[in-house]
Amino acid sequence: MRKIGSLPSGQQAKLFEDYLLTTGVEIKVEQSVDQWSIWVYDEDQIEHAKQELQEFSANPDAEKFQGATRKAEAIRESKIKKVADSARKQVNVRDTWNQPFTSRCPVTSLLIGVSVVVYLFMQTNEYGGQIRQALSISSFQTSGNMIRYSPYLLDIREGEVWRLVTPIFIHFRGTGGLPLHLLFNCFMTYQLGGAIEGNRGSTKLLLLVLLAAIPSNLAQFYWAGPSFGGLSGVVYGMFGYMWMKSKFDPQSSFYVPPNMVVILIGWFFLCMTGAMGSVANMAHAGGLGMGMLIGVGTTFLKQAGKSK
What we know:
Blueprint: E1 2-7, H1 10-22, E2 27-32, E3 35-40, H2 46-58, H3 68-89, E4 91-92, H4 106-122, H5 128-135, E5 140-143, E6 146-149, H6 154-157, H7 180-200, H8 202-224, H9 232-248, E7 254-255, H10 258-272, H11 281-307
Parallel strand pairs: 4-7
Antiparallel strand pairs: 1-3, 2-3, 5-6
């Protein structure tokens, strides 16, 4: 924000403020002793505002400035209405906590449902090993604590392209045999996926899931091999997307509670320390980075389109 000059009366300052608003320039007027200072918010609009102020100071009664107050009030009322409409439509992550699965969120339901079914089958001696081999990013053989696999993703190169995505459905038992890995990921998918799908639709959520899953799975594979799985990379991708949208795109209607940011970012760095055991940290990083990139990228592309 920069001061561009002053006017001798509050009436003139108000009229000039109204006129500039009709041209798309927002200013701040401050009274100081016997004059009213004019401050411009946007640095890119300073030169235009200076020229207008010079012309206004020379002839405030010019025809172009008359009627500005009425037009400015209409603009302000329109902005207030947009903010109110946006608030009514705002998607709060907390709003999804008490919602059951419905047909309005088929992709979210599918992610959770398939993960649960795969987990149950993996607990059986008959199908567990087969399912893990089929869904892992690469087939592998185990010998004691050793895992043998090809670093060249030969299965995918031979046409099994689903392996780029399907590791997200593999979940492992935690301490005491409890499915904590599955429960946490399904819980967060329910919240974040439900919020995104309800706001953006099933197709866009599905695209976001694919764009987060593939790079996060590849990152984890090249970092530590094929022995990994889980929705965590996708969860962090959805979180990163919503987080950036809530920060840079107020009209997106997304809201991420500050405590959720603290929890997920804190968990991200805690896992990095190794204190939580073997965790797919690169999948978390890849998903988070891709989600943030998509959130910021789509926001700035939309803003660039509006400015043309």
